[in-house]
Amino acid sequence: MLDQATRREHQDTGHTKVGTVLKVLKALVLDYGGVLTDPGENNAPEPPLLTALRKVKTSGLKTALLSNADGWWQPPTAWQALFDATIISGEVGLAKPQQEIYLLTAKKLDLEPRECVFVDDLAINVHGAKEAGMVGVHHRSTESTLEELEILLAIALRD
After folding, report:
1. Phi/psi of residue 47, each to 5°?
2. pLDDT tens per residue across span 49-64
3. Which of 42, 86, 91, 134 is the most exposed place for a label (fewest CB within 10 A)?
4. How far apart, in whole angstroms, are the C-alpha atoms of residue 115 and residue 10?
5. Ramachandran region of residue 154, left (φ > 0), alpha (ψ -120 to 50) or beta?
6. Is 99 in a helix, a strand, or coil?
């Protein structure tokens, strides 16, 4: 049985597991090409995961971009404020799926890897993140990824 303080803490969801997940997961880490840039199935005005990233950011969770791009590449200037950390392989000398790059990402967010959800369209990179201790989401479609993230983060990410 939940004590009164715990019940109040979970009153928005009515489910203790959702409240617990929300407290444990504190960051969303996204790959760029193939994930953040995926236009989705519904021809939305902007990529659906970019819209979701904005919602995650405004909900108070931390965000990061993790890309295997070379050191000359940067995300679009208009998107840079959406990230608490940007980790580019060519700049840090590490690449996905090396565990060290996921650990570095968590460190730059000032979090433990287990507090981060990582999304990538390549299964090998998701496995690397899981081995480093992150929660991994294999991006196959915007709808399935958004659905999974809504469950994990307990945030509505679709309009």
Report:
1. -55, 135
2. 999 999 999 999 999 9
3. 42
4. 19
5. left
6. helix
| Coil/strand/helix, residue 108 | helix
Radius of gyration of the chain (CA): 16
pLDDT of residue 70: 87
Total number of residues shown for the chain: 159
**Structure token pair of residue 125:** 């990179």
Going by C-alpha positions, the residue among 100, 97, 98, 136 that lies closest to residue 116 is: 136
Neighbours of 57 (CB within 10 A): 16
Distance of alpha carbon 134 from alpha carbon 53, whole angstroms? 18
Q: Rounded to an integer, what distance in angstroms lies between the CA atom of residue 137 and that of residue 35?
A: 11
Classify each residue of 71-100 as buried b or exposed e, where b means 16 or more C-beta atoms within 10 Å of its C-beta: eeeebeeebeebbbbbbbbeeeebebbbbe
Q: Which residue type sits at 145? A: T
Cβ pair 25, 109 in contact under 8 A = no
140-158, pLDDT tens digit by residue? 999 999 999 999 999 999 8
- For residue 63 the two structure tokens come to 């965000």
Which DSSP letter does residue 86 get?
E
